[in-house]
Amino acid sequence: MTTRTSSTEPIPRGSRRLVATAGIAVLALGGAALADIETTGALYTAESVATLEGFQVQSLCDFESYDSVQDLLADLEPSLWWGFAVDEDPVPWTAVGDPAPTAAEPDGTLVCDDGVLSLAAGQAIHASPTFPAPATAILVLATPTTDGSLLTITDDDGPSHAVVVEDSTASLLTWDAGAPPVQVASVDLDDDESAHVIAVVLDGTDVTLWVDGTSDSGTLPAAVSGPNFGLGAVPGAEPDGEIPETATFTATELALVPGIATSAQLDDLLAAATAP
């Protein structure tokens, strides 16, 4: 919410002469010049009473010059996009957990938001979309409050992958069924922000983990194909060892974008997500 205000503080006695002198100078400009001077509509009196007229409070979303996270994601033309609108029926995912996670009203993490989805240990949502190649998975979320899995891409017959968070560090893990998970990339979350953008850029076996403006790259054992895709610890091929339970976090947007999202596009998303 952007609010325009003007001061209602009284003018100090010693400053009134200066204000009066400035007023005379303005009058000397003539009527034509006065027409070009913008005013706030705030009138000051000796009793320090202000009259405010013509003020309007506008949401940042109402400004044509502002591109929201939703606007920027739409420009990327996602093949899958979950914005967690409360009134969406039926929901386009399969929910796991008791209780099952459900969309809720916006919580202020983003402006111009349609809704959020909060998850915790034992909960997840997933679907089986046609996975483009190359592809970029983009998650916009509030700061996780407990460690665990955030985003998972699982394959019953091939390698599976998960973005997990531990001690404010996001890591990309990969594993084959029955094999131990291996860390491929790792990036710290920005502790100064309450909203975050995490992207996994997949191009064959090349992968880049992008988190809050910083990236790390690695190599997957095989290209991603035919996966289950979703939030939290999504069911799939089990590794030799444990994959962390779902972290406690609130997601605001999840998108699967055909092609490689550029650093500039992701930077724009981050700037919109962290806008005041």
Distance between the termini: 8 Å
Highest-level CATH class of the largest domain: Mainly Beta
Helix fraction bin: 10-25%
Q: What structural category arises from helix and sheet content?
A: alpha+beta
**Fraction of residues in β-strands:** 25-35%
Work out the count of structural domains.
2
Number of DSSP-assigned strands = 15
CATH architecture classification name of the largest domain: Sandwich
Number of helices: 4
Uncertain regions spanning at least 5 consecutive residues:
1-35, 37-49
What does this 3D model show about the protein?
The chain starts with 12 loop residues before the first helix and ends with a helix. β7 (148-154) and β8 (160-166) form a beta hairpin. The protein has 4 helices and 15 strands. It is of the alpha+beta class.
Helix-strand blueprint:
Blueprint: H1 13-27, H2 31-34, H3 69-75, E1 80-82, E2 94-96, E3 103-104, E4 116-119, E5 124-127, E6 135-142, E7 148-154, E8 160-166, E9 169-175, E10 182-188, E11 195-203, E12 206-211, E13 214-219, E14 228-232, E15 249-258, H4 263-273
Antiparallel strand pairs: 1-15, 2-5, 3-4, 4-15, 5-14, 6-11, 6-15, 7-8, 7-14, 8-9, 9-10, 11-12, 12-13
Keywords:
seven-stranded antiparallel sheet; 2 domains; 276 residues; Jelly Rolls; eight-stranded antiparallel sheet; alpha+beta
Q: Nutshell version of this structure?
A:
This protein is of the alpha+beta class and 276 residues long. It has helices at 13-27, 31-34, 69-75, 263-273; strands at 80-82, 94-96, 103-104, 116-119, 124-127, 135-142, 148-154, 160-166, 169-175, 182-188, 195-203, 206-211, 214-219, 228-232, 249-258. Mean pLDDT is 82; it is low at 1-35 and 37-49.
